[in-house]
């Protein structure tokens, strides 16, 4: 018989009750930590602050060094490698080991490094750091392993590049100069071999001293002294003469075989005689090169600088003297360095120059010497990213396949570049084959001049597709205006970009508080541009200002929608009027300009979102949110951020008020339809003027004596009665803050204080026990006492103020998702208690002031994140509806319901209605991103309208609206994945997940129940700079970039940590901020929180150029001129090596020039030099204090592996010896045993023979 127990009975009850399935049991998350690897992939753009250039004439590779220690190797398009020295010391000189797959760099920290680029990822092999002297010049003769190193003290050291060991051969400065010289000659500025005799080394000092040093005899053979400072030297290929460039803009030619006090010739190419008959002073000639042609024997004399000082507006130049022709090639930027490309690498032969590579401060120019006129080659590299400073970036990985061909087709027609050389690009080293990529990548960059560039970033390359200029939409400003805050000298600077790839609608936000909506067309069009003026509701009150309590709050706003030709322009930007001819591509359709009252500066745009299906554009500013209907070209919502809360605003705000309006009546101006505003009653003009007059002459009062909510309630229209009645009328209309209020009694302040005290007495709070960290956080449910129907105001005023407040906004519910401890608060008395409990924590924002007083009064709340989605706004919703989700800088997430006409015809005429809902979520820190998942954890795709050609669309207008009609009717569906599992969703009750991410936390909220099912703290002492929900390996995850320089990733929806890796210090991106350097962008007063943090404006700018995209790709602006791509996908890292081009190819070295019989007979030919005999072991050992050898990571690893292998071999050998010894002992024992066995056998045999013939009885 079965025995019944109390535990069994309880288990039976539990099993009989239906248990709702857990979310983590239904959703299978496939991402694991081994799927992630953080790696930098490709770098594109022009090297920032270049300092040096070098060229390998056999491999046809170009090397560029920068001030930050960066090194770029360039070959044919697709062959591009980036290297970085361990230190950030500037690269001062680069020398290739010609046709050997290696190069040597000299850096400003007095070190030389040997790089090996025979493999796809170049690495440092050796390093040598000089400890007593500074390196000023290095020289490596062709096919030599001995490197000459000149220093600032005038000494020359010799380094063996095979092992980076110093030779004992040293050329000291006191042995080179004339014994009669009494001063130090200065630093070495030039070292070179005589082309005709490699045993002769030409040494140049910056004081103008020139010495021809005999390496064999170790003495100075010839000395020359120039009258001006020496900058560079170039040999003639015969070795008989050399030319020098000087600091006074002159060129001097010297004979190499005779010592003379004066040069053979002196010329100042660009000097002109003045009135006194003297030559005008000229700028220094920084570098000169002397090359010869084999066919004609004529020489090319090429130099940079040397122009007259008094030439106003003259640009930097490169001068080419060929025969009797002098050509001056002006450059757009300062010349850093140049190098002449020649067919022959031998200095003793005719070089046959064919191009000049000019490294400018902001560009790379290659000049064709073989084409008349010396045109430039068209640069195949994306070196013009910084043509105008990049202000924002957008990255689309796995975009629609037809987008790139469409952009390329319009870009090729509108941007035809002419005037370039027809010859092929000369830097064609390496090998790269385009890999077939299964998806396309597009990068969109916004620039300070208002231009927008579209780049094809597929398969590791970067190619410009299309460029458009938004400044063409506006008239040219007559004078520079600084009326718009933050625009400075760039009123058209692009701040935000929002593109719908499927509908090809583009929206940009500019620095002048304007947005432009573009539509893509393949054909040219001629039409007008619509303009919408949107005024700012109100501005901040200044400290110490005096304002009237009867002042209208907020003022009546006026929004005008006009064609640009009919509009009265207001503000610094003026839209072009009349019909405009627009080229193919993105064509401006609608311009929205935010206008400050009375010319006051308007707020900057902080968030932007476009939805082609809803035909709406939403953008947020520093204090408001605006939604524009692009179909009807009207503003459907223009609301300040505090108004989104209704009466449940949890923050104590610094009051705001507009500037006083003009005395002229604005009756003829119409307002746009806004759902948050009730229609105003018609009032006569005389009454309006009387009220305005009374407002201007009312008793002044200071803003410190009233709160934001008091000011809002003071404008609610109500009759004068003896009681103040708080009744909740669910069907009552929402009170409009724009309705005029009657005159208030003098004791207005005391009346509200009495009301507040009475409300607090009647609404006590209960302590809520601390909930489990795994359970969702919900607002506390406290039992509220029934409010009395009437409250008598106890004061001495003659009249008793009564207000009837009946608004649905009073029923707003706030979910505080920051932490569990913060939920112990009641929302009675319109959120007063919540403000007192969470005053410090609720105001967390990086944009706050450093003073503690700013934490108590919130003066500004900007909109930082916007998202259109079909979602749920209430718990009772059975199907999703169009909504707009708004994230603010104070961590609030609010929803706005969108009501659209169902019929297609009504959509053209009936206004779209937007209504703020009662759902409010709160997190800690600024809201960064919001995304939505279906019940299976799949990302809900945003709704869009498919793009169609405008020409075809006009002929099929009805079919287009039919598609929209079908979409509106089918909108309640969530997603195909969610529809497949409707039954499971209905059982659980929740059908969506909202992923809310702030600077500190991430929360997953189930909808429509609004329960927080998962939470994760993303940062403790730091904050999140950029976050995004991306797709990876057929799943989704949350990736974040932290201010501490780490990258982190979390699964969705459970927010389980996947990776936390060091990536990039935030200080490396400080060049984008308004104040350069780490010290400039950190507010020291923020240390009151125990840490130092970046100011909000600085990290916002960094976040605009830091992008995450699908498939684990990412992008950031690593310098003002370069973009760096990275990935977090381990799968992509495995295939990365196949996408990188080969740098080094095996090529034969050309034969050296042959000497003629007579030249060799009379000793005119070059003489071979055995450098190994001079600089090898016979020269002795160098002092250890001169330089320190630092092995590279590769060599060090090889040494470690070799040492480990050697120890293993030694150990095996020792064990083998020991085993041999043991085997020897064993062999001896076996031999002894064998001998003993044989002796025993003999004895036994003898004994057997002895007793063989005997009987038993004879024994």
From TrEMBL:
Belongs to the WD repeat L(2)GL family. It comes from Cloeon dipterum. Residues 788-802, 1200-1209 have a biased composition (Polar residues). Residues 732-743 have a biased composition (Pro residues). This is Syntaxin-binding protein 5-like. It is a peripheral membrane protein. Residues 694-712 have a biased composition (Basic residues). PANTHER family: LETHAL 2 GIANT LARVAE PROTEIN, TOMOSYN, ISOFORM C.
């Amino acid at each position: 018989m079965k025995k019944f127990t109390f535990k069994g009975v309880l288990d039976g009850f539990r099993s009989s009750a239906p248990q709702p399935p857990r979310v983590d049991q239904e959703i299978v998350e496939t991402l694991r930590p081994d799927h992630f690897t953080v790696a930098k992939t490709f770098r594109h753009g022009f090297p920032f602050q270049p300092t040096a250039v070098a060229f390998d004439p056999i491999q046809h590779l170009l090397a560029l060094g920068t001030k930050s220690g960066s090194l770029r190797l360039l070959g044919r398009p697709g062959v591009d490698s980036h290297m970085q020295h361990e230190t950030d010391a500037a690269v001062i000189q680069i020398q290739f080991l010609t046709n050997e797959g290696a190069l040597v760099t000299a850096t400003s920290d007095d070190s030389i490094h040997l790089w090996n680029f025979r493999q796809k990822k170049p690495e440092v092999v050796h390093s040598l750091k000089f400890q007593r002297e500074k390196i000023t010049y290095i020289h490596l003769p062709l096919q030599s392993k001995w490197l000459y190193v000149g220093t600032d003290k005038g000494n020359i050291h010799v380094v063996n590049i095979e092992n980076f060991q110093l030779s004992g051969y040293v050329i000291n400065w006191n042995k080179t100069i004339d014994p009669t010289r009494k001063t130090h000659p200065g630093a070495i500025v030039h070292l070179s071999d005589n082309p005709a005799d490699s045993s002769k080394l030409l040494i140049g000092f910056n004081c103008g001293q020139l010495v021809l040093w005999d390496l064999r005899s170790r003495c100075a053979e010839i000395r020359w002294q120039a009258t001006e400072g020496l900058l560079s030297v170039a040999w003639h290929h015969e070795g008989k003469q050399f030319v020098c460039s000087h600091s006074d803009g002159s060129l001097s030619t010297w004979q190499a075989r005779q010592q003379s006090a004066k040069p053979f010739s002196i010329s100042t190419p660009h000097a002109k005689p003045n009135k006194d008959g003297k030559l005008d002073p000229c700028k220094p000639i920084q570098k000169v090169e002397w090359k010869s042609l084999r066919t004609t024997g004529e020489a090319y004399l090429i130099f940079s600088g040397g122009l007259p000082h008094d030439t106003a507006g003259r640009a930097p130049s490169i001068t080419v003297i060929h025969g009797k022709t002098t050509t001056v090639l002006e450059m757009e930027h300062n010349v850093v360095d140049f190098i002449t490309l020649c067919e022959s690498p031998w200095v003793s032969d005719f070089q046959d120059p064919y191009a000049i590579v000019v490294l400018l401060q902001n560009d790379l120019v290659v000049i064709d010497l073989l084409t008349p006129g010396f045109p430039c080659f068209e640069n195949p590299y994306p070196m013009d990213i910084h043509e105008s400073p990049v202000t924002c970036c957008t990255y689309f990985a796995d975009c629609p396949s037809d987008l790139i061909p469409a952009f390329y087709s319009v870009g090729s027609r509108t941007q035809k570049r002419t005037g370039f050389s027809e010859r092929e690009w000369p830097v064609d080293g390496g090998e790269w084959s385009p890999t077939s990529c299964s998806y396309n990548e597009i990068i969109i960059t916004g620039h300070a001049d208002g231009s927008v560039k579209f780049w094809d970033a597929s398969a590791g390359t970067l190619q410009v597709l299309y460029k458009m200029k938004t400044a063409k939409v506006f008239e040219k400003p007559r004078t520079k205006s600084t009326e718009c805050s933050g625009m400075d000298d760039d009123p058209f600077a692009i701040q935000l970009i929002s593109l719908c790839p499927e509908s090809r609608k583009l929206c940009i936000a500019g620095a002048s508080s304007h947005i432009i909506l573009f539509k893509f067309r393949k054909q040219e069009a001629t039409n007008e541009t619509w303009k919408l003026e949107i005024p700012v509701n109100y501005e901040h009150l200044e400290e110490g200002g005096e304002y009237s309590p009867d002042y209208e709050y907020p003022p009546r706003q006026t929004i005008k929608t006009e064609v640009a030709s009919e509009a009265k322009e207001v503000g610094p930007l003026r839209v072009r009027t009349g019909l405009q001819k627009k080229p193919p591509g993105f064509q401006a359709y609608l311009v929205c300009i935010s206008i400050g009252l009375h010319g006051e500066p308007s707020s900057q745009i902080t968030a932007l979102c476009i939805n082609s299906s809803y035909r709406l554009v939403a953008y947020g500013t520093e204090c408001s949110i605006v939604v524009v209907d692009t179909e009807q070209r009207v503003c459907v919502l223009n609301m300040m951020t505090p108004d989104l809360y209704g009466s449940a605003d949890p923050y104590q705000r610094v009051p705001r008020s507009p500037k006083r309006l003009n005395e002229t009546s604005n009756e003829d101006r119409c307002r746009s339809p806004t759902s948050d505003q009730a229609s105003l009653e018609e009032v006569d003009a005389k009454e309006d003027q009387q009220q305005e007059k009374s407002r201007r002459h009312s008793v002044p009062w200071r803003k410190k004596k009233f709160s934001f909510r008091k000011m809002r309630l003071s404008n609610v229209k109500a009759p004068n009665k003896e009681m103040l009645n708080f009744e909740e009328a669910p069907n009552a209309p929402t009170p409009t803050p724009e309705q005029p209020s009657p005159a208030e009694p003098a004791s207005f302040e005391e009346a509200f204080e009495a009301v507040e005290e009475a409300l607090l007495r009647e609404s006590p709070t209960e302590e809520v026990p601390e909930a489990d960290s795994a359970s969702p956080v919900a607002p506390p449910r406290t039992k509220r006492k029934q409010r009395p129907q009437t409250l008598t105001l106890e004061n001495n005023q003659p009249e008793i103020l009564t207000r009837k407040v009946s608004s649905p906004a009073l029923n707003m519910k706030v979910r505080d998702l920051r932490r569990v401890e913060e939920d112990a608060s009641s929302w009675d008395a319109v959120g007063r208690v919540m403000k007192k409990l969470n005053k410090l924590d609720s105001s967390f924002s990086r944009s706050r002031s450093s003073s503690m007083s700013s934490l108590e009064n919130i003066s500004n709340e900007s909109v930082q994140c916007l998202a259109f989605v079909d979602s749920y706004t209430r718990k009772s919703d059975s199907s999703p509806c169009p909504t707009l989700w708004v994230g603010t800088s104070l961590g609030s997430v609010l929803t706005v319901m969108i009501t659209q006409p169902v019929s297609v015809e009504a959509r053209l005429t009936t206004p779209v209605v937007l209504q703020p809902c009662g759902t409010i979520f709160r997190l800690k820190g600024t809201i960064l991103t919001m995304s939505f998942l279906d019940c299976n954890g799949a990302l809900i795709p945003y709704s869009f309208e498919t793009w169609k050609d405008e020409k075809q669309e006009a002929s099929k207008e009805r079919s287009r609206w039919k598609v929209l009609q079908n979409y509106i009717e089918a909108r309640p569906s969530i997603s195909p994945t969610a529809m497949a599992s409707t039954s499971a969703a209905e059982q659980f009750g929740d059908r969506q997940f909202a992923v809310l991410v702030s600077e500190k936390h991430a929360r997953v909220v189930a909808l429509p129940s609004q329960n927080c099912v998962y939470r994760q703290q993303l940062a403790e002492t730091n904050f999140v700079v950029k976050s995004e929900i991306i797709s990876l390996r057929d799943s989704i995850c949350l990736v974040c970039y932290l201010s501490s320089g780490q990258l982190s990733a979390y699964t969705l929806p459970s927010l389980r940590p996947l990776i936390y890796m060091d990536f990039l210090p935030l200080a490396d991106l400080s060049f984008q901020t308004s104040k350069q350097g780490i010290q400039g962008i950190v507010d020291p007063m923020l240390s009151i929180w125990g840490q130092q943090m970046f100011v909000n404006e600085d990290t916002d700018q960094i976040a605009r150029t830091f992008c995450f995209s699908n498939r684990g790709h990412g992008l950031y602006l690593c310098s003002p001129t370069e973009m760096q791509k990275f990935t977090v996908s381990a799968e992509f890292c495995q295939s990365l090596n196949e996408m990188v081009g080969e740098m080094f190819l095996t090529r034969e070295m050309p034969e050296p020039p042959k000497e003629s019989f007579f030249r060799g007979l009379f000793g005119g030919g070059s003489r071979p030099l055995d450098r190994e005999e001079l600089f090898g072991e016979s020269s002795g050992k160098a002092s250890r204090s001169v330089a320190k050898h630092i092995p590279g990571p590769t060599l060090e690893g090889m040494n470690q592996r070799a040492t480990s292998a050697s120890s293993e071999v030694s150990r095996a050998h020792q064990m083998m010896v020991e085993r041999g010894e043991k085997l020897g002992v064993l062999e001896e024992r076996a031999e002894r045993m064998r001998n003993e066995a044989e002796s025993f056998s003999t004895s036994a045999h003898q004994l057997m023979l002895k007793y063989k013939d005997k009987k038993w009885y004879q024994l």
